[in-house]
Inverse folding.
């Protein structure tokens, strides 16, 4: 999937609507959220404990998509 945005999942909290999250599926069908910020900042766990209800690094995915659609000057 990708690019079209995600439907926020209350069970996952903020990660489900964050542009820094990547959905990872296990062989058994379980779904995890990998925090891309963890690659450069150890403050963030690679697999956050869900639901994440507060996070300084949260970046709304929808806001990002809107910004990308603004034509350049
Ligand atoms: S920055 Fe925060 S909200 Fe975004 S994926 Fe990482 S832990 Fe989740």
């Amino acid at each position: 999937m990708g690019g079209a945005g995600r439907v926020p999942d209350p069970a996952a909290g903020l990660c489900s609507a964050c542009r820094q999250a990547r959905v990872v599926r296990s062989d058994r069908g379980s779904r995890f959220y990998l925090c891309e910020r963890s690659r450069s900042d150890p403050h963030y766990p690679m697999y956050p404990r869900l639901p994440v209800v507060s996070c300084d690094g949260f970046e709304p995915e929808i806001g990002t998509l809107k910004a990308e659609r603004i034509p350049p000057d």
Observations:
- The chain is about 10% helix and 15% strand.
